[in-house]
Amino acid sequence: LALFVRAKDCTQCDARLAAVLAEPRPVDIYLVDSRGDDAVLRQWAGAHRIPPERVRQHSVTLNHDGGLWMRVGNGLMPVVLQQESDGWHIAAY
Predict the structure, then answer these.
(1) Which SS3 state, helix, strand or coil, does residue 37 take?
(2) Which residues lie across from 63 on neighbouring strands?
(3) What's the pLDDT band for 49 if we cut at 50, 70, 90?
């Protein structure tokens, strides 16, 4: 799964994040407004209590969005995408 969220002013993003983290499934989290700044990513992860052990185990990854959200997220925010054999598909929004 890939979860695309905004770092700022997105209560729906926070709710979707909590729901995704409540499941034991691996997830790649992408910040669409981090501008490639690792400090923003780290600060956001700390503020949202991303479990460090899950990051160390690579069951959660923290990433900057490089445009995938614009290509396949259909402008939905937040959005959960699932990669399948024929590409990315919206799993939840």
Answers:
(1) coil
(2) 30
(3) very high
